[in-house]
Amino acid sequence: MTKPIRSTCPYCGTGCGVLLTHTDTGLDVKGDPDHPANYGRLCSKGSALGETVGLGGRLMAPQVNGQESDWDDALQLVADKFAASIRDHGPDSVAFYLSGQLLTEDYYVANKLIKGYMGTANVDTNSRLCMASTVAGHKRAFGTDTVPQTYEDIEEADLVVLVGSNLAWCHPVLYQRLIAAKAERGTKIVVIDPRRTATCDGADMHLPLNAGSDVALFNYLLTQLYEQGALDAEFLANVNGFDDALNTAFNSDLSVTGLDPIKVKEFIKLFLCTEKTVTIFSQGVNQSSAGADKVNAILNCHLATGRIGKPGCGPLSVTGQPNAMGGREVGGLANMLACHLDIESAEHRAAVQGFWQSPCMPDTAGLKAVDMFRAVGDGRIKALWIIHTNPAVSMPDASAVRAAIKGCDFVVVSDVTGLTDTARLADVVLPATAWAEKSGTVTNTDRTISRQRAALPAPGHTRPDWAQLAEVGRRMGWSDAFDYNSEADVFREYAALSGIAGELGRDFDISGLASISNEAFDALTPTRWPISDHKNGGRFFADGQFFHSDGKAKMLAVAHRPPVARTGARYPFRLNTGRVRDQWHTMTRTALSPRLSAHLAEPFVEIHPTDARQLEIAANDLVQLRSPQGSAVMRAKITDAVQTGTLFAPIHWTGETAPAARICDTVAGEYDPVSGQPESKAAVVSATRFKAAWYGFAVTAQDVTPTADYWAKAKTQAGFRVELAGTETPEDWEKAARAMFDLPKADLQILQDRNRGVARIALHEDGILKAALFVAPDPVALMRDYAATLPGQAAGDVLTGRAPADMPNPGPTLCSCFNVGVNTILTAIETQGLMSVDAIGAALQAGTNCGSCRPEIAALLAQTKRLEAAE
Ligand SMILES: Nc1nc2c(c(=O)[nH]1)N[C@H]1C(S)=C(S)[C@@H](COP(=O)(O)OP(=O)(O)OC[C@H]3O[C@@H](n4cnc5c(=O)[nH]c(N)nc54)[C@H](O)[C@@H]3O)O[C@H]1N2
Ligand SMILES: Nc1nc2c(c(=O)[nH]1)N[C@H]1C(S)=C(S)[C@@H](COP(=O)(O)OP(=O)(O)OC[C@H]3O[C@@H](n4cnc5c(=O)[nH]c(N)nc54)[C@H](O)[C@@H]3O)O[C@H]1N2
Ligand code: SF4
Ligand SMILES: [Mo]
What is the Cα–Cα distance from 861 to 712, expressed in whole angstroms? Predict the structure, then answer.
């Protein structure tokens, strides 16, 4: 057997190391036992990576105006169009929109090209939607964007406070590390989130605060720390702004949080009494019009108690994307330069321009994401290059963003597939090499730089993103500046530049790696910066030294501000949005895995039972959401995990998978005035029952693109499963089914009751089931998971819609590693009397591989115990 290749998972900012081994059927992916992020663990998404490296749907050659082209023509066109726009309309008429999933080397070349050579800072990234508030908060408090803590701190803490973080689903391996530590040392866990999430299943306390009220809660905490004498006076000598921050905090009103004051007191007591406290925060904090203030309200409490940068003790912002941190280091955002240098500083600009020997350097920040797409929309930006992100679905006010991209003079998209909402609107689509085929570096949440290494050859004509950018630089006349032969060349130059940043007193200095050989770069093991300084375990700030000009930290005076969009008679619901366990963003990769698609196969909206009753929405109805910006339709999931008056919907579904369910169409483009980060978690909507004339469910061996008002498609082992609904009933279901599945000659089996509006149609070819459609006037009741297994088989009895009596229905998949369904687990709990997650694991294997489903198994157990207690 060949030696496994060490690389890094391309999903979340945990940055788990993986071992990639070639097998007869593809790529085997295992956790790297030596990687300090995961020590061998992987979550469900990491474990299923092997299922996503196939070439189905991949873009293999450049496309110009929808026609296949070659690199020479396509890149010359890009270079010419950008040059012409700069010549005729000035440098600010062009823009790049990048991604925290780019490798550091891709990012570095893009940033150098647009800032140093094209001469504009109109380069922003999806990190604006993700980490911008944390960046702003860190800079205000510390003088630089530094994450003080490390992963070990999660394990050494006695109290972990999770604010706006669904760690169990979004950073599952970190969550597992936390839960393992809890088992060992009894770590207390508090979750601060308006919604009850899977993360709460392992927590000691859940504080379901009102959306956007975190500043009020942390301000109250600060006043209590003061009143109860928990401040660290010695440490505060290194901190400015204490009095103002405290006075403002005293003016804060805890009642806006809507929390039970008794529970808040318990939380305060825990925080007060526990020196070793780590506060982990994520998008419930960042994605807010008060995002930066929320960050500073949290940092204030850590600074005032001196609980920062010490083992088991400090604030820890978890990064979302695999290289969100690398993008911050390399200066990918419109208001930064490279290596934590500032665009506002003439000294920093001169240093970077001198290093690059570049013809220009913008002296003001460029347009941030929301304003950038507005400028695209009103014609100020005439040439736009979008790389490794899908803004047509992920930006707020997404339908307006689609219109802007569509109307723009010239749009280039670099992606691994042309089948995205954004790529479909582009003039030029450039095929990028994908995760398993490319090489470079990424930095995770705790500043550990890891190598991504290619395990597969670049297919077709695909090229790495940095190479596309460098070639455009050369074609625009800057041959020497973009004369890179490899990603190692780029990395060395970047590391050298960081040395200049170090000389200018910045924290980010990896110049020790500036002359790394190609071989050493190939062999680079995970490296946490600061590289030269391991005296504090790679932590910052315990010594009270910060990066403001006087060396001190700053506490900010922050007052509560509610979300900008207000609920009212017309839009009575507060809409929260976020992630599910087994899908990654716009699903271009995770949806290729049948295993991952089985966990939650359809877009849904969580709605409280009281609201559902009032709106006459029943379980499995479809719900129509409307906001001032747009609308969305998704399945009702009635649950008291959300509070009354609030809804929660996932972000993942797109024009490719469920066009009516693009939730960002309903989100306004409001943003934080400090960070520019959009308020993606606090939209306002109305909710009504979607008035469907018919509902359908289909299984099919071949991919289909239905035309129904609502459809949602998920991959299965046997093909696809599709949920459907329409407002007008087709005259002839037989004809409609043939057209939908494009099977004009298939043998048709049909059961129909026209009066009741029920139809069941099976389409066979040569005795093999190709597709089946089940239609009803109400949401179709059926053993979906069983029906989904039938395409490709003889399946004569498919129309019964039921598994044979001797085949139990496993229900929706909970454990995607071993394909164990909810019903299987419930039956085992009942019949075998299983009382713990481990016992269920021993009996069914569920939860024993990646462990991502353990919180949900625990929830099932708790639910059955509650039911038993009630009986
Ligand atoms: N499975 C999966 N994992 C992922 C990703 C993915 O797509 N899928 N994406 C990655 C990326 S890029 C990111 S940024 C991270 C995001 O990771 P998280 O931030 O953990 O995930 P989200 O679901 O976006 O939001 C977290 C929580 O914020 C809560 N929230 C909403 N409003 C508020 C509020 O006002 N206050 C507080 N305190 N909480 C609030 C929501 O209810 C939600 O549970 O996940 C990463 N990991
Ligand atoms: N309402 C709401 N909106 C949100 C959020 C939310 O919580 N709520 N979260 C926000 C956050 S935190 C984030 S990070 C964004 C994420 O949103 P996006 O960045 O738009 O989502 P992705 O699906 O990750 O897009 C990545 C794209 O890159 C492509 N790709 C994959 N590999 C490569 C490669 O190697 N090279 C190139 N060139 N392309 C590649 C993929 O096919 C895909 O089209 O969404 C944001 N939007
Ligand atoms: S936690 Fe999961 S998604 Fe995140 S890096 Fe690790 S394996 Fe990948
Ligand atoms: Mo993100």
Answer: 30
Q: How confident is the model at residue 168, as a pLDDT?
A: 97
Among the candidates 689, 721, 736, a domain finishes at: 689
CA nearest to 412, candidates 389, 438, 384, 434: 384
d(CA 602, ligand 3 centre) in Å: 22
d(CA 199, CA 584): 18
Q: Give the CATH number, domain containing residue 21.
A: 2.20.25.90
Three-class DSSP category at 321: coil
Residues of the chain short of pLDDT 70, as ranges, are: 1, 532-535, 869-871
CB 143 within 8 A of CB 506: no
Question: Which amino acid makes up residue 25?
Answer: T
599 vs 607: CA distance, rounded Å:
19
Specify if 222 maps to a domain.
Answer: yes
Helices 214-227, 261-273: inter-axial angle, 10-degree rounding:
60
pLDDT at residue 706 in the model: 94
Residue 244 domain-assigned?
yes
168 contacts: CB under 8 Å, gap ≥ 6:
175, 197, 198, 199, 201, 202, 581, 852, 855
pLDDT at position 533 is 58
- Nearest C-alpha neighbor of 579 from the set 286, 284, 295, 343: 284
Ligand 3 pocket, 172 CB below 6 A? yes
CA distances from 624 to 311, 660, 715, 725, 871 (A): 49, 10, 25, 12, 36
Q: How far is CA 559 from CA 212, 216, 250, 256, 662, in A?
A: 12, 7, 10, 12, 33
Both 451 and 600 in one domain: the answer is no
Ligand 2 midpoint to CA 421 (Å): 12
* Ligand 3 pocket test, candidate residues 7, 12, 581, most atoms within 8 A of CB: 12
Neighbouring-strand partners of residue 31: 18
Cβ of 38 less than 6 Å from ligand 3: yes
Q: Which domain holds residue 48?
A: 5-52
Q: Are residues 43 and 162 in the same domain?
A: no
Give the integer Cα–Cα distance in Å for 508 and 492: 15
Cα 541 from Cα 625, distance rounded (Å): 46
| Cβ-Cβ contacts under 8 Å for 754 (sequence gap 6 or more) | none
Q: Is the dihedral of CA 368, 371, 377, 382 positive or negative?
A: negative
Note the pLDDT tens digit of each residue in 694-714: 999 999 999 999 999 999 999
Residues present in the chain in total: 871
Mutate which of 19, 30, 43 for ligand 3? The one with the most ligand atoms within 8 Å of its CB, which is 43
Q: If DSSP codes are grouped into helix, strand and coil, which group holds residue 432? A: strand
Q: Are residues 328 and 432 in the same domain?
A: yes
Model pLDDT, residue 534 = 56
Q: How many separate domains does the chain show?
A: 6
Cα separation, 33 vs 586, whole angstroms:
30
Query: CA 776 to CA 509: how far, in whole Å?
Result: 63
- The model's pTM: 0.96
76: how many CB neighbours lie within 10 A of its CB?
Answer: 14
Whether residue 136 sits in one domain with residue 185: yes
Q: Residue 842 maps to which CATH number?
A: 1.10.10.1100
Does residue 558 lie in a domain region? no
Instruction: Mark whether 438 and 448 lie in a shared domain.
Output: yes
Say which DSSP state 417 is in. B
Provide φ and ψ at 714, rounded to 5°.
-140, 145
Are residue 312 and residue 336 in the same domain, yes or no?
A: no
Residues 613, 521: one domain? no
Asked if residue 49 has its Cβ within 6 Å of ligand 3, the reply is no
Does residue 550 form part of some domain?
A: no
341-395 confidence digits (pLDDT tens): 999 999 999 999 999 999 999 999 999 999 999 999 999 999 999 999 999 999 9
Give Cα 818 to chain centroid, integer Å: 25
